[in-house]
Amino acid sequence: xxxxxxxxxxxxxxxxxxxxxxxxxxxxxxxxxxxxxxxxxxxxxxxxxxxxxxxxxxxxxxxxxxxxxxxxxxxxxxxxxxxxxxxxxxxxxxxxxxxxxxxxxxxxxxxxxxxxxxxxxxxxxxxxxxxxxxxxxxxxxxxxxxxxxxxxxxxxxxxxxxxxxxxxxxxxxxxxxxxxxxxxxxxxxxxxxxxxxxxxxxxxxxxxxxxxxxxxxxxxxxxxxxxxxxxxxxxxxxxxxx
Length: 242
What we know:
Elements: H1 2-9, H2 12-28, H3 32-48, H4 52-67, H5 74-90, H6 94-109, H7 116-132, H8 136-152, H9 156-167, H10 181-191, H11 196-203, H12 207-221, H13 226-241
Helix pairs in contact: 1-2, 2-3, 3-4, 3-5, 4-5, 5-6, 5-7, 6-7, 7-8, 8-9, 10-11, 10-12, 10-13, 11-12
């Protein structure tokens, strides 16, 4: 708990020390599945402070721990794939990073029980790698999905990190007024007369996420109010049908 809080707040050196302590505790009680998750988190913290060789050793240890678990232990496979992707990205191998992070995402999504926190963390790492690989459209979609999950949990610090990543995505829409899929849904619901709170409930988002998307929508469509937004969308719809 404290280790992850330190990582979320950006104190990765402290997070590493706490993850080491956690790992020793779980090892003593033979809870290898928790040891695997702790090692995966520690890889990310070590990467964040630039200790790539130590991160590589932690990843090797994670693989050894994973080998001691049943073959169908998909949760450990998922966090191991994420750790591998994060380390690969730090080493500059973005192709391997994206492949590993996509594998992590697929494994988490295939679980019988939802694992939203870990899914969002994998999506954040994947979006970061896609952004660095200049896959801007994919990065934007991936990060927006991560943000929606973090907001719904809620997990404010991770949501803030995700917004920071989204801000760093350069490039303009391919045409004036082009909205992402998420922005389109928000625009349609708000233009129909719903408040931010009502839109959040209908779209399974937080009101803050609706507000954040709405600010981007206003800027893209060059409107300043809900009424202007409704008129703009009506004109676009009529133009597409003519």
